[in-house]
Design goal:
Layout (H helix, E strand, L loop, with lengths): L1 H14 L4 H4 L7 H43 L1 H6 L3 E2 L6 E2 L2 H32 L2 H16 L2 H19 L8 H25 L3 H9 L4 H12 L1 H17 L2 H6 L16 H8 L5 H36 L1
Antiparallel strand pairs: 1-2
Helix pairs in contact: 3-14, 5-8, 5-11, 6-8, 8-11, 9-10, 11-14, 13-14
Length: about 325
């Protein structure tokens, strides 16, 4: 038996049979390849830590710059004061009108924009013919690339006069105009992210639902949408961030007046308060603007943390 195996090996060597492992690439990892992998690992790690460091730097800077004004003005007076008169002989720094305007404007934009964006995403992802889907995706991409100042300019020249005429108002620049503009601005984000989530749902889920007797609409809304719920919620979170962080477009259509919010009154958001006065602010006024930025930062963080907590809790309940 041993002689036979040796004879076979000798015959293979004499025939010069190539090494199959070398042909199919079964090589041991080279040292250079490992070094390259380590370099990229370190590079990506440093880039990730750079992002975290930027967030921490912004947080620390806002806290250091914003706390002194809050300490001097008083937290209650600053958050719940109804009068903002930063340039008066006896200045007052109450940001409650800005805070409520931001909350109402963002909530209104979400109420109007999210349902439109969600149903548009379902239609484009599951129902629309291919040609219509391609055209609509291109239109959504164009909307996403339009600068905010263009939205504000169109709103100021078209929407504001239209509101003034339709509702017989002395001035159309109002909270209502800001809600409409913000609703349009968040549409590309909601549509695109929701479409990606819906497209990622396995086709087998829908086939199984159809095989059990459900029609297509029932399948889309009872199978596909729940399966993509996490991605759709992410679209809503991104839409909230876009709406609450917008300044230029809101400044151009909302009137930029520090009034308590009313649907057809001129208002000022937290973002527009900082943008409109920072250029000439000094002393306590400048510190108060940094305090507004700190409040806005904390507000956005609270919204993101709350939505992520709700999503994780719901995911844990399902599992």
């Amino acid at each position: 038996m041993m002689n036979t195996s040796r004879e076979i090996q000798a015959e293979q060597q004499s025939l010069d049979i190539p090494n199959l492992g070398a042909i199919f690439g079964a090589k041991k990892p080279s040292r250079n390849k490992k070094n390259i992998e380590n370099i990229f690992y370190i590079l990506f790690f440093c880039l990730g830590m750079l992002s975290v460091g930027c967030v921490l730097l912004i947080t620390v800077y806002l806290v250091i710059a914003g706390i002194p004004a809050i300490r001097e003005i008083g937290l209650v007076e600053f958050l719940f004061g109804e009068t903002w008169a930063s340039t008066a002989s006896e200045p007052k720094f109450g940001i409650l009108p800005f805070l409520l305007s931001s909350i109402y404007g963002t909530a209104g934009a979400i109420v109007v924009g999210v349902p439109i964006g969600f149903f548009s995403a379902v239609y484009l992802s599951k129902i629309a013919p291919k040609k219509i889907k391609v055209v609509m995706e291109s239109a959504v991409a164009v909307l996403a690339g339009i600068p905010s100042v263009v939205y504000g300019l169109v709103g100021m020249l078209v929407l504001v006069p239209g509101i003034r005429v339709i509702f017989n108002l002395p001035d159309g620049a109002s909270l209502f105009a800001a809600i409409i503009v913000l609703s349009v601005m968040i549409l590309p984000t909601v549509i695109k992210v929701s479409m990606n989530a819906l497209d990622a749902v396995p086709k087998e889920y829908e086939d199984a639902s159809l095989a059990l007797g459900a029609n297509e609409i029932e399948t889309y809304f009872r199978v596909s949408v729940p399966a993509a719920k996490s991605g759709i919620a992410t679209a809503v979170v991104l839409g909230v961030g876009r709406a609450i962080g917008e300044a230029m477009a809101v400044m151009m259509v909302a009137g930029n007046a520090p009034n308590m919010p009313s649907i057809f009154e001129s208002v000022r958001f937290l973002t527009t308060a900082v943008a409109s006065e920072m250029a000439y602010a000094s002393g306590l006024q400048r510190e108060a603007l940094f305090s507004i930025a700190l409040v806005l930062f904390v507000f956005i963080m609270m919204i993101n943390v709350s939505l992520n907590f709700l999503l994780k809790r719901e995911k844990g309940a399902r599992s």
